[in-house]
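Example record

The entry below shows one chain as it appears in the dataset: sequence first, then structure tokens.
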Amino acid sequence: MTVILDVTGVAKKLGRQKVLRDVTLACAAGESVAVYGGNGAGKSTLLQIIAGVLVPDRGAVTLCGESIIGRHVRGRRRMGYVPEAANPPDHLTVSELLAVTSSLKQAAAVSAEVRTLIGIDAFAHKSIGQLSLGERRRACLAAALVGEPALLVLDEPTNGLDASGVDMLVGVLKQHCELDGAVLLATHDRSFAKAIGAMELELAEGVVRAT
């Protein structure tokens, strides 16, 4: 089985707190991995390191065999990331957000089929600042899918979504894995993780373990 994401021995200190001590995990093609943990356990910090928002103090992160630690790493184009806040610049419209993402990734825009599946056409002309959290999540998910990424990284992806939104997300993530993509998510929503068939890991005391 092809390994899409490989995280080895990652450690991160924020201020005086050792948030991550020795995190090791992998995510293969066609696989979803859900990371659980209490508030402050370091789930968002871990995802931010994988997405390139933060740099680890120690450890390695590879995507499709290529290191993605450091600035200006081209390999991160093969990743789509939706942070917990889902807060791109307020002044951009949804269509502008997708266009900017396509330009930065040097990739084709998401298809009309994907836009319809995610349900963004009704508010594509609106600015991000006018949207509800659920609508922002849909817009950011569409942006994350630009360029048909190998890996989707999602932080608390069901926050703000109604039942139809959660159903949509389950369908999108299952389809992504059926096409040999991989999904890594941090969540408190165990029923959602089970719905997408995710392998479950627990982050506590700076390390991850199988639940």
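Notes for this example: The longest strand covers residues 3-14. Strands lie at 3-14, 17-28, 32-36, 58-63, 66-67, 79-82, 151-155, 182-186, 199-204, 207-210.
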